[in-house]
From TrEMBL, chains A, B:
<keyword id="KW-0227">DNA damage</keyword>
<keyword id="KW-0233">DNA recombination</keyword>
<keyword id="KW-0479">Metal-binding</keyword>
<keyword id="KW-0540">Nuclease</keyword>
<dbReference type="GO" id="GO:0008821">
    <property type="term" value="F:crossover junction DNA endonuclease activity"/>
</dbReference>
<dbReference type="GO" id="GO:0006281">
    <property type="term" value="P:DNA repair"/>
</dbReference>
<dbReference type="Pfam" id="PF03838">
    <property type="entry name" value="RecU"/>
</dbReference>
<keyword id="KW-0378">Hydrolase</keyword>
<keyword id="KW-0234">DNA repair</keyword>
<dbReference type="InterPro" id="IPR011335">
    <property type="entry name" value="Restrct_endonuc-II-like"/>
</dbReference>
<dbReference type="GO" id="GO:0006310">
    <property type="term" value="P:DNA recombination"/>
</dbReference>
<comment type="function">
    <text>Endonuclease that resolves Holliday junction intermediates in genetic recombination. Cleaves mobile four-strand junctions by introducing symmetrical nicks in paired strands. Promotes annealing of linear ssDNA with homologous dsDNA. Required for DNA repair, homologous recombination and chromosome segregation.</text>
</comment>
<protein>
    <recommendedName>
        <fullName>Holliday junction resolvase RecU</fullName>
        <ecNumber>3.1.21.10</ecNumber>
    </recommendedName>
</protein>
<dbReference type="GO" id="GO:0003676">
    <property type="term" value="F:nucleic acid binding"/>
</dbReference>
<keyword id="KW-0963">Cytoplasm</keyword>
<dbReference type="InterPro" id="IPR004612">
    <property type="entry name" value="Resolv_RecU"/>
</dbReference>
<feature type="binding site">
    <location>
        <position position="82"/>
    </location>
    <ligand>
        <name>Mg(2+)</name>
    </ligand>
</feature>
Length: 196, 196
C-alpha cells in the first residue's frame, strides 16, 4: 500500500485514536458517515465545497394536508446515474463515489453501475478529478483509487476478464487514507499530493 | 439587455421556432424542462457534464414487499442547501440555480434561500463558475446573471435595502440566452464568452 507521504500511521496516532473511544473512532461508523463528517469539516474550515447528492427518488404520490407540510406517500428509489459526491476544490471539479465492502480479497465491480462508470469516464475527459473511495471494512482500511484504475479493470471485465479488483491491487495502486480526528477520511490530502 | 455576441434573435430564427410548433417551442415548457433538455444535449454531444441534483427528500418509512421494489410510504421535502445544477465544463467547475418568475418588474430575492446564497459565495471563492438562470415567463426571456450580481443585491437587502432585483437591472447586467432548437437554453455559449 502507498501512503502519499510514504509513512504509515505512527503508534502515538493509533494510541490517541484508541483513547478517544467510540465517539471519535470510526468503529461502527459507515464510510458514508465518515465522508459526510469530512466534507462538513472541509466546508466549515473553508477548504473545499463538496456535498453528497440527495438519494434519487421517483415521487409518485404527494398529499397536501391543510396547515402542515406536504407528505410524499408513494415513492421509489431510482438508480443513480452519476456518482454520489461532487464539488470544487482549488479551482478543480472533484467527483467521486464511495463504496464499502466486507469482502477480504477483492472489490466486486458489480458495486459500480455502468452509468456511473460512463459518468466517471466523461468527468475525467472534461478535466475533472475523479476517483473511488473504497473501504475494506474487515481490515478497516480506506483507499483512494484514481478512476483510471477503475476503467482498466472495467475494460478487462468487458473483454471477458474477472469481475472484480483484487484487494492486493487496490493496496498497491491505491492510496491508503489514514483516519484523522477532524477530517476523518482526509482524501484531499491525497489529492493534494497527486494533482497539485 | 446584453447578448454575449451583441445580436438579437433574428427574424428567420423566430419564424423557424414558430413553425416547429408545440413540441419544439418552449411555450408551456418549464425552465427546468428546458435546462434538463439542454444538459442532455450537452451530455450526448460530449460538450459538458452537468446534471440536476435529485430533489432532497427526508425518508421516514419504507416498506419492503416480497418480490417487488421497496416503496417509500412516508417522506418529506427538505430545503436544498446547495444549488440545483452542477458539473464540469472545459476543466472548470460549473454551479448554478435556475428560477422562473411571473413577476414583470422584479425578481424577488426570497426565491433564493440563504443557504444557497452562502453556497454560491463559497463556490465562487473556490474558483468555480457560478451563476443564476432567471426566466421572466411573462416575457419569455431567460437571463444568465453572474453570481457576483446576486451577492451585491443580497448585501443591499441585508443592510435594509430592497428585497428584489429590478427587471431592468437584470436586463442590463445579465445576458439574454436565446432559445435554440437543440440546446434550448444554451447557457454555455454565454459562459464561453465570459470565462474562456
Amino acid at each position: 500500500m502507498k501512503y502519499p507521504n510514504g509513512k504509515r500511521l505512527n503508534t502515538s496516532q493509533n494510541t490517541m485514536q484508541a483513547k478517544m473511544g467510540s465517539v471519535f473512532s470510526n468503529r461502527g461508523m459507515t464510510l458514508e458517515d465518515d465522508i459526510n463528517a469530512t466534507n462538513k469539516f472541509y466546508l466549515e474550515s473553508n477548504k473545499a465545497i463538496i456535498h453528497k447528492k440527495p438519494t434519487p427518488v421517483q415521487i409518485v404520490k404527494v398529499n397536501y394536508p391543510k396547515r402542515s407540510a406536504a407528505v410524499i406517500t408513494e415513492a421509489y428509489f431510482k438508480q443513480a446515474s452519476t456518482t454520489d459526491y461532487n464539488g470544487v476544490y482549488r479551482n478543480k471539479y472533484i467527483d467521486f463515489e464511495a463504496k464499502e465492502t466486507k469482502n477480504k480479497t477483492l472489490f466486486p465491480l458489480a458495486n459500480v453501475h455502468e452509468h456511473q462508470m460512463e459518468h466517471m469516464k466523461s468527468v475525467t475527459d472534461h478535466g475533472g478529478i475523479c476517483f473511488l473511495i473504497i473501504r475494506f471494512s474487515m481490515y478497516n482500511e480506506t483507499y483512494l483509487l484514481e478512476a483510471e484504475n477503475l476503467f482498466y479493470y472495467w475494460r478487462e471485465k468487458l473483454s471477458g476478464g474477472k469481475k472484480s479488483i483484487p484487494y492486493s491491487d487496490i493496496a498497491k495502486k491505491g492510496y491508503l487514507i489514514p483516519f484523522h480526528y477532524q477530517a476523518r477520511i482526509d482524501y484531499l490530502a491525497t489529492i493534494d499530493k497527486l494533482y497539485f
